[in-house]
Amino acid sequence: MSPFLLFLLLLVLSVAGFFIGRYKALDLARKAGGASRLHSRPVYYGVLTALWCCLPAFFLFLLWLGFEQSIVSSLVIADLPAELRSLPPERFNVLVNDIQSLANGNIVSGKVTRQMRAAAAHYVRLQDIGTMITSVFVLVAASAGMVLVHRRIKPELRARNQVEMVVMGVLVVCSTIAIFTTIGIVLSILYEAVRFFQQVPVTDFLFGLEWSPQMAIREDQVGSSGAFGAVPVFAGTILISAIAMLVAAPVGLMSAIFLSEYASKQLRAVAKPLLEVLAGIPTVVYGFFAALVVAPMIRASGAQIGIDVSSESALAAGLVMGVMIIPFVSSLSDDVINAVPQSLRDGAYSVGATRSETIKHVLVPAALPGIVGGLLLAVSRAIGETMIVVMAAGLSANLTANPFQAVTTVTVQIVTLLVGDQEFDSPKTLAAFALGLVLFVGTLFLNVIALTVVRKYREKYE
Amino acid sequence: MNKSNKQAGAGSSGTSRRERTIDIVNKRLEKRYRKEKRFRLYGMLSIIASVLFLAFLLTSIVSNGYSAFWQTYIKLDVQLDPDMIDKEDPGRSNYQGIIKQAIGAYYPEVKDRKERRELYSLFSSGAAFQLRDEVLKNPAVVGTTLSLWVLADDDVDMLMKGHIKRNVPENERRLNDKQLQWIAKLEAGKRIEERFNTTFFTAGDSREPELAGIWGAVKGSFYTMLVTLALSFPIGIAAAVYLEEFAPKNLATDFIEVNINNLAAVPSIVFGLLGLAVFLNFFGMPRSTPLVGGIVLMLMTLPTIIIASRAALKAVPPSIREAAFGVGSSKLQVVTSHVLPLALPGMLTGTIIGMAQALGETAPLLMIGMVAFIVDIPGGFTDPAAVMPVQIYLWADSPERAFVERTSAAIMVLLAFLISMNALAVVMRKRFERRW
Amino acid sequence: MQEVLKKNPTEKRILAPRESRKTIGNITVPKPRMVCRNVNVHYGDKQAIRNVSIDIGRNEVLAMIGPSGCGKSTFLRCLNRMNDTIDSCHVTGEILFDGRNIYDASVDVVPLRAQIGMVFQKPNPFPKSIYENIAWAPRIHGIVESKSDADEIVETSLQKAGLWEEVKERLDQPGTSLSGGQQQRLCIARAIAVSPEVILMDEPCSALDPIATAKIEDLIEELRTQYTIAIVTHSMQQASRVSQRTAFFHLGDLIEVGTTETIFTKPSHQLTEDYITGRYG
């Protein structure tokens, strides 16, 4: 039985449960003399039945989906011939992967042996058995839930309260997903990064000046070669982000000021949506534009004035990234500037200040914490931006501050290291997670500071 | 009133100094207004710069991409010799050979093997499939001479669209002089023309630009978005309702709030790392599938939806809740039957904006293997699929000139989707906006 | 004031009926500082002020009273064109200052506001130090160039505002760190620092406690010797304490003008009488 069909069946059962429960409640009500004799409205008895029908069964179902593969794999591995099980760990992992691919009908990397085929068949068989057993369990659980509640339905059953309790539980679970996501991010990145640091010392990674992970691509070279000094990568990230902020901060801030303090209503009505369009353009489009149009343009104009510009210069990627961030800076600053109370403007105008004097000397200082917070969020965004740099910045890890040269960034390296087939033991792949850890911690730091600053600022003027 | 004399005296004694003050003020005015003008100009320039950039971007995408909606076709007279068609299974006949024969028949003068190869390369490898489809659709054509418009190779297409210049030296263009002559013969015989490019909207990915289309990516995006929407909308609203209406103000809910706000600012690629490590490696979910892509994008858009939904809930005035409590409803009843319906438009708007974000997102999907080269059009949630932005990324990486225009065209399609989603959000906001 | 009313409770006066919207009393003064004639203010389609004509005399405190929404604050904000900051606001009529209509196209609001300062309902010190709060405006106007000039103007302004003794030790602290009453006096000092001729005060004490209010009222009395002051107030007691002339506004009309004493003892309009005797407010 396919998971989808099972899911559908579960749904049908739940709906049936609802009607059965409600019917019994109505029946009871009639006998007892009116619905007011019941503790809750009949609908609640129906919902309660449906909930008991679907929730436990659904959890069983999820449990199986989550652990199906590991259970089946371990069973298959246990049944593998001894000579296969005694393979070195890396080869063994590849083998297990191949068997799984074979069983799922996917393309297999290596040669398919008879033993593998047998194992794959075994795998498929176990999977089928597992699915069947689960289906039976799930359906039994659903029916049992329905029957149990149905027998409990009495006029004094506090159905509404029980339903509300369940609903509340669901709400709580939903709102904790954010926490689980964060925990998931931290654990998964940390786990792989720690494995990386077991092979490459932390100090080498954080302070090393040479980055060339590509060298360790062959299996017999694991950890022995390849340089994992991430300083050039960090420097490249900082260089591109700095260029982006040099564009985005003044332009974004001035746009916000112009729109909120100078522009007429009509101009605002046109310019704001245009900025929103700019914000809504996917980064992959910016990346394509940077690589196709901006980079060659910068290269050509550099050649005209006699500067040798790399075709993947940090400048091109940084400029386009800056443009991407303009609307972000502008909308954050706009919010912040609008939050400055009108009375401060009045105060400045009443002593005869011009608009620009009011803005420069009163509004901006008053809004400064909020503006700084917004800029920090923008920096965090620039550091974490991926597609523009993947498409327009280079792969070569040059340690340079020259914006005309190609540099690489943390996100570019993560993508390059992880896209394509990888094994999960080589430091090359794990290095991506180490970079991811740095990225996450760095942006987390910026975000937390920025969000606190902005919140404090809002509270001040609320 | 007896003080009035004294006051007048004090007033006049002050006047001379004040007269001086206003003179000083007036003297500096011009300079101050120059500064004012300059400042205003900077603001204006910032806006203009952003708008110009947007215009530049859009025009360069459109001017690069519009031609992809046309495709060059060449008319071939194909003789369908019954001997060449497999009787048992017409689908397995050597259509490539039939096409080559037809080409050879039009150019009897080309004999040399190398030259013949060059000649064949003017036609798309998709021509054989076109012919097969034609035969399978209408077996009666076997034995007749079929006049068929077949796809031209992408180089020919580029030449016809003017992206390959005819007047540059031979070694600087992808088509040599002889090939140009052959094409000239086609042109003279009115056997080559531009037609609307249906392939682009109906096909999956391909290594051959003339055979590549975005339908596979569109469907992939559709399935992915469906997963994202199905998960993030209910979860997002449930979370927002709990946090806004029920949650006690304590450390735990503060922590949730900090988490949500922070997740909204975490780089998207980090969610990709999470998906790779947890969903693919730990739970062993299938790579490159809309299912995993959708889950990862759900985690990414959830904060956006929660934040927007909470704002919508906040905008419902407390008086409505109090009124509902007043008639003896339970808290949950108040929320489900009074507060939620009022907040729903705002929540939907937030969801649409979140979905638009997810639709344009690329980086996390690269991490979970959605960059694989997938020709087949996905038919479900667990089929390997590409999504539109990833398709754009893949094509942007391809060296062929014809992919540049297809990339731009794909961007136009993606932007059309995004803009209509955002427009929908704006319309909804306008329509249901209620001031309390 | 209450006693004043009690003194002659039986005096018979003929009062203008409530329906009469014409201004009663003498709107002119000899040698006026500002002359307002037929001022109308619209917010979009809504008319907030109708045909108000009044003179503001030199070295006098003119109090504007009236129930909420009567347009007194709107009128005050016309006097230095603070209404310009509101898009939908439209002013017609004449307001003459130094013989020129301040709504004339040729008049520049920047020097105008340097001459006609304003103090607001809620104290609104800039998010700067106490010193900078005062020194900023003279500096942008070019009134002070050197540090010693600035020091001097800060000291004299604060002294005039009666705040010097309280803050002279902590001039570098933010203006917002002061108490409400001190902040309001800081705002007055800020207005004084550019040596204006007229100071407009929009309910300057409504956010303050009675002690701070008393200090501000004393201050107004002192400032009168050097400046022309127009004050909007909600409190009739305050109007009677600080002003020489009083104007009573009602729903956008200037109902009655006269010396403060007359208005509070012998009003000529039924509405004025109703208001000052507290029948509505």
Q: Can you walk me through this structure?
A:
- The complex is a heterotrimer of chains A (462), B (436) and C (281).
- By secondary structure, chain A is an all-alpha fold.
- Chain A has helices at residues 3-32, 42-79, 82-85, 89-104, 114-152, 159-175, 177-199, 202-207, 231-262, 265-280, 283-304, 314-339, 342-350, 355-384, 387-392, 410-418, 427-461, and strands at residues 211-212, 227-228.
- Chain A has 2 domains: 3-157, no CATH class; 211-461, MetI-like fold (Orthogonal Bundle), CATH 1.10.3720.10.
- Chain A has a two-stranded antiparallel sheet.
- The longest helix of chain A has 39 residues, at 114-152.
- Chain A is flat, with a radius of gyration of 31 Å.
- The relative contact order of chain A is 0.09.
- Chain B is mainly α and 436 residues long.
- Chain B has 16 helices and 3 strands.
- Chain B has helices at 4-65, 95-106, 113-120, 126-137, 154-160, 177-188, 198-202, 215-246, 251-263, 268-282, 290-315, 318-326, 331-359, 363-367, 388-397, 401-432; strands at 70-79, 145-151, 192-196.
- In chain B, strands 2-1-3 form a 3-stranded antiparallel beta sheet.
- The relative contact order of chain B is 0.10.
- The model of chain B is unreliable at 1-15 (pLDDT under 50).
- In chain C, strand 9 and strand 10 (253-259) form a beta hairpin.
- In chain C, helix 7 (180-192) runs parallel beside helix 8 (210-223).
- Mean pLDDT of chain C is 88; it is low at 1-7.
- At the A-C interface, helix 13 and helix 14 of A face helix 3, strand 6, helix 4 and helix 7 of C.
Secondary-structure topology with pairs:
The complex is a heterotrimer of chains A (462), B (436) and C (281).
Chain A: H1 3-32, H2 42-79, H3 82-85, H4 89-104, H5 114-152, H6 159-175, H7 177-199, H8 202-207, E1 211-212, E2 227-228, H9 231-262, H10 265-280, H11 283-304, H12 314-339, H13 342-350, H14 355-384, H15 387-392, H16 410-418, H17 427-461
Antiparallel strand pairs in A: 1-2
Helix pairs in contact in A: 1-2, 1-5, 2-5, 2-6, 4-5, 7-17, 9-12, 9-14, 10-12, 11-12, 12-14, 13-14, 14-17, 16-17
Chain B: H1 4-65, E1 70-79, H2 95-106, H3 113-120, H4 126-137, E2 145-151, H5 154-160, H6 177-188, E3 192-196, H7 198-202, H8 215-246, H9 251-263, H10 268-282, H11 290-315, H12 318-326, H13 331-359, H14 363-367, H15 388-397, H16 401-432
Antiparallel strand pairs in B: 1-2, 1-3
Helix pairs in contact in B: 1-16, 2-4, 8-11, 8-13, 8-15, 10-11, 11-13, 12-13, 13-16, 15-16
Chain C: H1 2-7, E1 32-43, E2 46-57, E3 61-65, H2 72-78, E4 89-97, E5 100-101, H3 109-115, E6 116-119, H4 130-141, H5 147-160, H6 164-167, H7 180-192, E7 198-202, H8 210-223, E8 228-232, H9 236-242, E9 245-250, E10 253-259, H10 260-265, H11 270-276
Parallel strand pairs in C: 3-8, 3-9, 6-7, 7-8
Antiparallel strand pairs in C: 1-2, 1-4, 4-5, 9-10
Helix pairs in contact in C: 4-5, 4-7, 5-7, 7-8
